[in-house]
Every structure is written in C-alpha cells, then in structure tokens.
Design goal:
- There is one protein chain.
- The chain is α+β, with helices and mostly antiparallel strands and about 140 residues long.
- It has two domains: about 35 residues, no CATH class; about 80 residues, ADP-ribosylation fold (Alpha-Beta Barrel), CATH 3.20.170.
- The protein has five helices and eight strands; from the N terminus they run ααβββαβαβαβββ.
- A hairpin with a 2-residue loop joins strand 1 and strand 2.
- The protein is elongated, with a radius of gyration of 17 Å.
- Belongs to the KptA/TPT1 family.
- Keywords: NAD, Transferase.
- This is RNA 2'-phosphotransferase.
Length: about 140
C-alpha cells in the first residue's frame, strides 16, 4: 500500500475511499495490500466464498461470438472466471464493449443444481467456472 500511495502521490485514505466507494467494487484491501477482487492476472482462483445465484443471470457478448458460445459454452479465457450480470441491462453494456451487443440468458439455477459454484464479485458481477451450452439461451 505504501509503495502504491508513493507512486501515485495519494494518501492511504484516498486509496481506501476508492476501494470502498468505487463504482465497480473491483478492489479489496487485505493485510495492508490492495488487490483486484477477481485476480485477473494471478494464476489460480482468488479465494471467494460461494454464493447462491439468482435463478437467472445474463452474459453480454458481441454478436460475432454468439454462435461459438451457444455451441461450446462460456469459458473464462484469459480471466479466472466467467463473468455474468444480474440484469440484461448490465449485460448489454458489457456486450457493447465487443461490438453489437447480444445478451444471453443463463439458467443459473440449473447450473448450480448440477454442481456449478457461483461467487458474488460485486453488485453487478457474478463469477463461475466454465458453463456448458445447455445453460445458455438467446432471449
């Protein structure tokens, strides 16, 4: 934390404020260190407690990826987790980053019943491992 504050020219309090009040809740403080909650750049999974997902979640993607996703399922790719959204609006905003957005519906209830483990990343993000195509559909 000290090295980060020195490099950015900010106080510990300012960093703590960003962590506590950042719009996407991407960071957390632990033992005087700051880290990304999802651990994008670390090997293996960041420890997060499992959570019961809502019955339906959403995945936003670009139109060019839809057929492959519906055929092969969702995969974390370069991330540690598959990222899902609690609302179609949030998923649409995510999908818009990848071209013309398409929102897929995820049957989280069925996936969880079949053993998929979900984690609450923040208010706008649910995380899980790869999901088979049988849990996905176009709305």
């Amino acid at each position: 934390m000290d090295a980060l504050c020195a490099a950015l020219g900010v106080s510990v309090g300012e960093v703590e404020d960003v962590v506590a009040n950042g719009s996407k809740q991407r960071y957390e403080l632990a033992d005087g260190h700051i880290r990304a909650r999802y651990g994008h750049s670390l090997p293996g999974h960041v420890e997060m407690p499992p959570a019961d997902p809502p019955p339906v979640l959403f995945h936003g993607t670009g139109a060019g990826s839809v057929e492959a996703i519906l055929r092969d399922g969702l995969h974390a790719g370069g991330r540690q987790w598959v990222h899902l959204s609690p609302s179609p609006e949030t998923a649409r905003a995510v999908g818009a980053r990848h071209g013309r957005p398409v929102v897929l519906t995820v049957d989280a209830r069925a996936a969880a019943a079949d053993g998929a483990v979900f984690h609450r990343g923040n208010d706008d993000t649910w995380l899980t491992d790869d999901l088979a195509p049988r849990y996905l559909r176009r709305p």
